[in-house]
């Protein structure tokens, strides 16, 4: 590789980037826009869930239970006159679950017991339904504990369960989603930045002009890679700054390790984009492949939102060839847990291997040939 | 009419001309349907946990056995003290640790609250919340058995929880109908988002303009392949969802078909609008991306719209995916018919008409 020629190519590429604002927009405006939108928009924390309450005979026995539900920050309680009304409200999606205290509630709780509290959940969104079920169980336990305190007697719940949640004590879903979002966004940016540039040179015929010059294929590729790498790292820095200062996600790990992992990931993403575009040589196909093999897998298979541990084994194996998976795992750990080398080092090794693979294959597949 | 048909034929040929373009339209969606449908789940079936049982009595063993026997839990280690726990959790080898205090059995027998501690990895907050609710169910089960066997307060009221529409709370039933919409959406936006700008870059759009075709005819011809390919693909994906993944489709097929067609029209309209605005294919692709990504993430596909802040919820009203998600889940799981979904149909129709009109105007303005 000739340093002078490489410098020349890098300058050409940089001038092109500065002249065409779309690359700058991809690197800086896109992460800003996406992170703001998703950081605020994506949440798995269900709060103020509309819950219907049907108390067939409201009385001093049912009131404390309903009051416990009202006090919970997870619920917005709607009082309904009858189970039939609750069913209609449920079908119209006005409430997502309802609690039914039958007319014999007071008699059962005071007498032969136990009374049955009917709970109907809208199970369509199974995840939210399960969370709501958990919150309802919590309220029920609080109510029982209060009852026991007032009336004395033996413990209703002999086991005193204490839970400690590490890394994210309030279970803010934003703290776990924002680091993953950075990975999804960087995947997009890396692929978009490069997938289009090489394919564009082929389509416009300027690749032929480059080939007629004495530069080697390796020089052409590195000349393209370096300026986009710098751009991508700029976008990454912006994303991290937003996560920490705007969304208040704690960054427990070191910035240096974060930068190293990001640099490796960006090399993989750019290498993948270069490979796609030098194979496709057509912006339509390159763009489609870029979306299909980068964004959607990064969204669904990376562990950003769906836990990889819950996937069936064949799918878990597939996730191992996905660069975003390693980046998401490192980001979540670096942000929330700190420099856990047992997690970060294998991720770094996998990303380094992938970077070498993609850049190597791109180099090997790109010949100075016109067909 | 014959002239219009010829134009539509030309659009099909342009789209399906080479092997690579044909493949990206059909291959990836099918592969993704299979992979994503298996992958996209919030259900926990494999919670690795570590046990620190310092209790010499029998109750500690019983409570640990309850966890080990639960289908969703898997014991990975038993440690004598809390010393090694942090490393196991840090490394993701264990999601949670169950620590039975040495006074556990003694306290239970004495009628004092028996201390049981659970430490859980909160990095994935959703997994942690679900795992905690499983754990608390197990402890409740233990409590009930203990009270029954050793006396104590009988609970004055118990919860009887039923889940409607999805009795076993399988997240696959929620996710797979969503994937039907997701993949159909991606294909149609890609087909329509580049159709005008590709010809403009090649210079053939100007040639089209000097023909006697009117702008709306040109746009109609460009919309047709997307509509047909999108419909065919949606039908195929719905069939796979029902017959392969066993997701029940209890609502009206007509309501589903109507919803999908209205959705396709609005998605194509938005795609053509982007395409008419763009000057280069790169801009067209970027525009398609810039619409696609937020539209997917803010559709309610994976995270509920109800959890979003008000302002973002208002933004989702211009997102056709939002309405499609309700239609898909309504027809698949809740047994909705056309009348139940009217509130979703008219915004889609409005978005479709608006975006197609805008695309026609934009394409014409670009011409002059």
Beta content of chain A comes to 5-15%
Spatial shape of chain B: elongated
Helix content of chain A: 55-70%
**From the structure provided, what is the oligomeric state, counting identical versus distinct chains?**
heterodimer
Biggest sheet record of chain A: 4 strands, mixed
Our measurement of the CA-to-CA distance between the termini of chain A, rounded to an integer number of angstroms, reads 25 Å
Q: Structural class from helices and strands of chain B?
A: alpha/beta
Strand order of the largest sheet of chain B: 2-1-3-4
Which structural category fits the helices and strands of chain A? alpha/beta
Radius of gyration of chain A from the CA trace?
28 Å
Question: Unreliable segments of chain B (pLDDT under 50, ≥5 consecutive)?
Answer: none
The overall pLDDT average of chain A reads 86
Q: List low-pLDDT spans of chain A.
A: none
3D architecture notes:
- The complex is a heterodimer of chains A (371) and B (368).
- Chain A has 371 residues and is α/β, with parallel strands linked by helices.
- Chain A has two domains: 3-42 and 172-365, no CATH class; 49-151, abc type-2 transporter like fold, CATH 3.40.1710.
- Helices cover 67% and strands 9% of the residues of chain A.
- Chain A has helices at residues 3-19, 21-41, 63-71, 83-91, 105-110, 126-151, 173-204, 206-212, 217-246, 255-280, 283-300, 313-319, 323-337, 341-365, and strands at 49-55, 75-80, 97-101, 115-122, 159-166.
- Chain A has a four-stranded mixed sheet with strand order 2-1-3-4, sandwiched between helices.
- In chain A, helix 1 crosses helix 9 (217-246) and helix 13 (323-337) packs antiparallel against helix 14 (341-365).
- Chain A is elongated.
- The two termini of chain A are 25 Å apart.
- In chain A, 52% of the residues are buried.
- With 368 residues, chain B is of the alpha/beta class.
- Chain B has two domains: 17-40 and 169-367, no CATH class; 47-149, abc type-2 transporter like fold (3-Layer(aba) Sandwich), CATH 3.40.1710.
- Helices cover 66% and strands 10% of the residues of chain B.
- Chain B has 15 helices and five strands.
- A four-stranded mixed sheet of chain B has the order 2-1-3-4.
- In chain B, helix 3 (58-69) links the parallel strand 1 (47-53) and strand 2 (73-79).
- In chain B, helix 7 packs parallel to helix 11 (253-277) and helix 11 packs parallel to helix 15 (342-367).
- Chain B is elongated.
- The interface between A and B is large, with 117 and 111 residues.
């Amino acid at each position: 590789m000739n340093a002078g020629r490489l410098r020349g190519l890098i300058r050409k590429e940089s001038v092109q980037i500065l002249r065409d604002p779309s690359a700058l927009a991809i690197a800086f405006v896109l992460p800003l826009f996406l992170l703001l939108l998703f950081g605020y928009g994506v949440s798995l924390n269900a709060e103020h869930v509309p819950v219907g309450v049907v108390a067939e005979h409201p009385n001093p026995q049912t009131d404390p239970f309903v009051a416990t539900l009202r006090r919970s920050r997870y619920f917005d309680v709607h009082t309904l006159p009858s189970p039939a009304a609750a069913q209609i409200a449920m079908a119209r999606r006005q409430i997502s679950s309802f609690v039914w205290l039958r007319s014999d509630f007071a008699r059962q709780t005071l007498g032969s017991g136990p009374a049955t509290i009917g709970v109907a959940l809208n199970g369509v969104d199974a995840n939210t339904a399960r969370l709501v079920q958990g919150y309802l169980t919590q309220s029920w336990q609080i109510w029982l504990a209060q009852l026991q305190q007032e009336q004395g007697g033996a413990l209703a719940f002999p086991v005193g369960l204490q839970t400690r949640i590490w890394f994210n004590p309030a279970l803010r879903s934003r703290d776990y989603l924002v680091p993953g979002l950075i990975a999804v966004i960087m995947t997009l940016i890396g692929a978009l930045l490069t997938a289009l540039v090489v394919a564009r040179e082929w389509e416009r015929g300027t690749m032929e002009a480059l080939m007629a010059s004495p530069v080697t294929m390796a020089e052409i590729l590195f000349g393209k890679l370096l300026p986009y790498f710098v751009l991508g790292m700029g976008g990454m820095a912006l994303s991290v700054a937003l996560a920490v200062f705007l969304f208040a996600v704690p960054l427990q790990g070191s910035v240096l390790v974060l930068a190293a992992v990001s640099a490796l990931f960006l090399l993989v993403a750019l290498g993948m984009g270069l490979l796609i575009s030098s194979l496709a040589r057509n912006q339509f196909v390159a763009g489609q492949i870029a979306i299909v093999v980068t964004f959607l897998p990064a969204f669904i298979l990376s562990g950003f939102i769906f836990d990889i541990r819950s996937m069936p084994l064949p799918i878990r194996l597939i996730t191992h060839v996905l660069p975003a998976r390693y980046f998401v795992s490192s980001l979540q750990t670096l942000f929330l847990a700190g420099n856990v080398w047992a997690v970060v080092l294998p991720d770094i090794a996998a990303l380094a291997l992938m970077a070498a693979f993609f850049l190597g294959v791109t180099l090997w597949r790109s010949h100075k040939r016109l067909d | 009419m014959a002239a219009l048909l010829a134009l539509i034929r030309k659009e099909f040929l342009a789209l399906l001309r080479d092997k690579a373009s044909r493949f990206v339209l059909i291959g990836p969606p099918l592969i993704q349907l299979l992979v994503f449908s298996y992958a996209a789940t919030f259900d926990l079936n494999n919670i690795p946990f570590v046990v620190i049982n310092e209790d010499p009595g029998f109750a500690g063993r019983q409570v640990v056995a309850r966890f080990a026997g639960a289908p969703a839990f898997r014991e990975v280690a038993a440690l004598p003290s809390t010393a090694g726990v942090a490393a196991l959790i840090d490394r993701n080898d264990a999601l949670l640790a169950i620590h039975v205090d040495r006074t556990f059995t003694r306290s239970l027998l004495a009628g004092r609250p028996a201390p049981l501690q659970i430490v859980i990895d909160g990095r994935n907050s959703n997994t942690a919340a679900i795992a905690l609710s499983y754990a608390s169910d197990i402890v409740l089960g233990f409590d009930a058995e203990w009270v029954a066997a050793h006396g104590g307060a009988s609970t004055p009221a118990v919860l009887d929880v039923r889940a409607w529409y999805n009795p076993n709370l399988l997240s696959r039933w929620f996710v797979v109908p969503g994937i039907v919409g997701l993949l159909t959406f991606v294909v149609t936006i890609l087909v329509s988002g580049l159709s005008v700008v590709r010809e403009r870059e090649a210079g053939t759009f100007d040639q089209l303009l000097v023909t006697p075709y009117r702008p709306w005819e040109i746009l109609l011809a460009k919309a047709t392949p997307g509509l047909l390919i999108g419909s065919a693909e949606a039908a195929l994906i719905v069939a796979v969802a029902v017959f392969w993944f066993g997701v029940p489709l209890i609502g009206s097929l007509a309501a589903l078909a109507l919803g999908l067609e209205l959705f396709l029209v609005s998605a194509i309209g938005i795609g053509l609008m982007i395409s008419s605005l763009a000057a280069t294919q790169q801009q067209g692709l970027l525009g398609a991306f810039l619409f696609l990504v937020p539209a997917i993430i803010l559709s309610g596909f994976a995270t509920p719209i109800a959890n979003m802040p008000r302002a973002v919820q208002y933004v989702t009203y211009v997102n056709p995916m939002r309405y499609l998600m309700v239609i898909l889940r309504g027809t698949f799981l809740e047994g909705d018919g056309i009348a139940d979904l009217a509130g979703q149909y008219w915004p889609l129709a409005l978005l479709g008409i608006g975006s197609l009109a805008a695309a026609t105007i934009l394409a014409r303005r670009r011409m002059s």
